[in-house]
Amino acid sequence: MKTLAKTTLALVACFVLTSGVVQALTDTWSGATSSDWSTGSNWSLGYAPTSADMARFMWSTANAPTLGAGSFITTKMYFFSSGTLPSYNFTGAGSANTTLKIDPNSGSTVNFIENAGGTTGGTNQTFSNLTLLLEDSNLTGQTKIQPGDGKTVTIASNATLQIGSTTAQTVILEANSPQTGSGALNINGVLKAGVTGSLLSVEQSGVLNLNLAAGSDFTNLQLSSKSGGVINFLAGGALGGSVAIYAGGVANVAASGITLNTTEWSIGSGGKIGTTYANGTSTLGGYVTISNVAGATNTFDVASDGILVLTNRVQLGSATAIVEKTGTGTLNLTYSAGAGNSFTASAFNVNAGTLLVNNTGSTSATGATVPVNVASGATLGGAGRITGNTTLNGGTINFSGGTIAANLGVNGGNWNGNGTVTGLTTSNNGTFSIGTGANLIASGNLTVAGGTITAAASTSKITGSVNYTSSANSTFIGEIAGAGKTLTMNATGATLTLSGTNSYTGSTTVTAGTLAITGSGNLTATSAVVVNGGSLLIGNTNAITTNATAVTMNSGNLIFAAGLSSNQTFGALTMSSYSTLDFATTGSNILKFTGFASGSGILNILNWTAGSDHLYFASNTNLNASSFTFGGVANSAFVSELGANGYEITAAVPESGTILAGVLPLVSLAFAQRRRLKTMLNGRS
Known about the structure:
Distance between the termini: 175 Å
Number of strands: 65
Strand content: 35-45%
Shape: rod-shaped
């Protein structure tokens, strides 16, 4: 009678009518008799839970539930206590032999595992040596796993979590609500779904840790994370299926050396694919789809020194979406087959760490026309191809044969390694530095419009034409190279100093400012020097080493540095307008031209010292003393024939000082001689 009374009382207490629906009975585990799940005396209802019952666990007992071979069912597993919450290891007779099915069959959202209440102790539940099957036969609700704040539910390495068997299911993993911490589901065994279209969604501070065992299969399953949910992949495998990361969600590759071959990785607006390992390399084998929502931000966050490799294409996106690389690790884009990475975005921002583009062929690693921005402290590298305009904002480009098949804008930063820019390279501000042994192949030319340009070493190279228009002074110790490439200095008030060996074969033009060849610097192959304005400063003994270089002076200045003793030989000199040759106040310099081309200009010679400074021409064709002045005085130049040594331009009366100081005595002498001659003639008459 007592047993019957207890049973009746329990039935009355646990049947609750809500909108005409009979609620499940609560069957509480006591383990009073043994650890056998099937023994009725271990349960408050006198029998093991059925499809109409909820299994409740309220206190710790010496006997943790053990399930024998066969199938077992309950509507829900519920853990509750006003004190210490219990932790159990639910053990079966083998994942192929024992199935524990959770079937809410409720028509509403039901928590299959819920930790509620309790103040101390652990609520970490483990399922071992069995298959845990989650399947809501009603299909109108959702099944939730709520491990509890800071607590875990673990599927052991010898167990299986299966979502659905005959119908597609939706299972949500989250911490308790409201959350004060995270709740984790650790799957160390097999994860799979029985029917296509099944979903395991990680939300609201839920954490899914996947250290999957062989046999795991996502073919019928989509994993998703959103609204604070996190998925951590701790082991690899050919999983199939897809992983979707929505706003506030994260999917982390949480171990190095693994390969995850899902069919698709889908990043929604505000979603993030990341890594948490410090070193090593892991790979995503599925294609990546980024959000096509306007203004969406899609993030790849690679931590520490880790490397994450994407071997398949990136696709979709929108014209206003943003793709971001964050974290100090490396994201390596290697996809090369088919149409390549075809996504659309307003920008691919490399905010930290390194983005490697290692695709091959004519495809673009970063989308057909997607702009790439490299922030301070970040690096863009690789041997692949980018077809969007790229901006260096204080970061580094370290290509190993890579190509920017578009324009490059520089707002300070470094070019290291070897690579090509097919469009225009423009340095707008800051310092643009070419690294040791690096080669910037500027196929579309380099314009320094603002800021400065520097080289880390003499082995730093720019292969391409350089146009310098910045108002700031720069010193470049590296090499400007390239067949047919040119150098143009056009910056009023600024000085560009070249102190390295420069091998470009095109012309050198100075229109404004000063181009200084100093130190060990020289121009070894320039075809012509044109000084249209501004100044060309010769600062070493062999500043221009090719004797065939023709020189055109057109309102410009050719200046020898003070204290220099040099011997320079050029091709023919053409005078187009009034220009200046300044031998400097100190030093001893020899300047030779192969000839004098026709021209209408005058070359005014300053600071010339007889016996120390020399201006020679190999031929007197078109050579006329009237084309030269000393100190701005007309008719102050003579052409002296030197026989086999050609012709020299000298002052009318050479003095040890400047020619201007020598011209005045010459004029006084002429007047004195005239007066003396007149006196003699008057005396004879």
